[in-house]
Queue: 4 jobs
Job 1
Amino acid sequence: MKPWMQETVRMAFKGKPPGNGAGDISKQTEALRPPLLLTPKEAAEARQMRRAGLSPEAISAAMEKPLDEIEKVLVQMRMPRPETTRGTLNVTLAAHRLIMRERQGDEPIWTTVDRLLDELLRLRATQAAQFPVEPATSRRGGRRSVGDLSLPLLAGLEQQPN
């Protein structure tokens, strides 16, 4: 068994969870936004009213604030996208469906990916121990042959409609 494979067997793949500031607004983005005349508490209240379904005009009237200030606050709201094209992974849609199918309950996607990578590394180490790899024949440029281009994990997903 190769030394790097022995290390893989001893140590499980463990990713690092997102930090405390994950998802927070960038300081540069915040600096570029126009100043608001509403306090952070008033801005939060206006956004809550918008999520409840009130129009900007109704919020302006209810809070007795200028409409343009209410609109500035509401433009800065983060709204959930109904359907993302790539999920939170920067992968193909087929790979995203695979990850989503492998999730256990409501676990975070990063936990699913870590678990799958850990399983992959363990399986590779086990397979390498059972079937030692013979030295590869020299291929020009080390490129894959046409038969090696498919990804076995995604083979069943490529035929499914989007």
Job 2
Amino acid sequence: MTIRHMPVAALTAAALSLIVINSPAFAQGAAEPQATQPMQGTAPAAISDQKIEAFAVAYLQVDRVRQDYAAKIGAEKDAVNKQKLQNEANKQMINAVEKSPDMSLDEYKTIITAAQTNPDVAKKVQDKLKTSDTAQ
């Protein structure tokens, strides 16, 4: 994988591929009030190392699904079939997060947002992805 040298923008863009705005699962999750499973803010101290590690595991699973579907989606000429593949990929990516130990979809989205807005969180995530990637 090429995660070792991935800048913050690319990291968050790839991670956000999980959540497509027109995805029904995302729309349902976005409509839920944030009070259902709030994290304790987005400060680096509020996101434990365990959660960062769980995020890295989930992220790598999501990235595998994204890579698996990217070629299929890119090769598809028919717009309807392309959309079906995109929807299938989104479901698989959401499923990958939900099956990851110690990580919920809400937590995953919270950490992505924190990494986009807080350089310290982004660095922690990148560092964990580097060590997770080399361990595989």
Job 3
Amino acid sequence: MNRAFLKPGFFLLMVIGALGAAVTAHSTAGYLCLLLLIPVGGLLFAVPHWHGRIFYLACSGEILVLACGALTIWAGLFTAWMLAGVVLLELGMLEGKDDFGVFMLFCCVTLVLAAVIQVSDHVLVPLILLAAGAGLVLFFQDIRNYQLRKKYTGAVP
């Protein structure tokens, strides 16, 4: 799969999400979202071989997500999806169709959780459900890794 166009594409969509948050804000707080795009873009394109760049990219992008999410939950969610896409691309975790399928599943689950939060005006129950789901995923992934290690090394770690 040709990944050369994906990184600029995800960043362009992140810019569109921040612009959407800025336009719908009807206040000067929307300009903060646009200003926070500068460090994300700089880390993404200007310093490609900087040690620890992905960590700093995730941190600066999360500040952007929080700023957009403070204005509207949907712009924050969209920006979070694009940030996750950029970070996964940088880590080499979006290589095939299966990886994109899992990414789309993540987007759908978070969309449903955001809709539940928006409708119910409560955050605790959806966050407990999200934590339980993440715990189950980590549990099954740990079992899978154990089975793979046991099959290919023959020893229990």
Job 4
Amino acid sequence: MDDNEGLNSLFELAPDGRVLTVTPLSAYGRDAEGVALQPETGVVFVGFDTGRALAIFDWLPSETTIDTPLERGPECAIS
């Protein structure tokens, strides 16, 4: 992710470092600071500093790059 110091966009990268997609975020908020993916549902959460906003997107990878599913990481909580 690139916040207001750059393109204010979310980048999808392949394991080999290739840029697969670039999604502009300016329509949803400014100064994106955090991103989280829930792989089981394909939902992406992007948090913004400006306006304390949260954008929620449906996501499908633009190409399949691994043969086995990713393991679920630990739960996170915001307090």
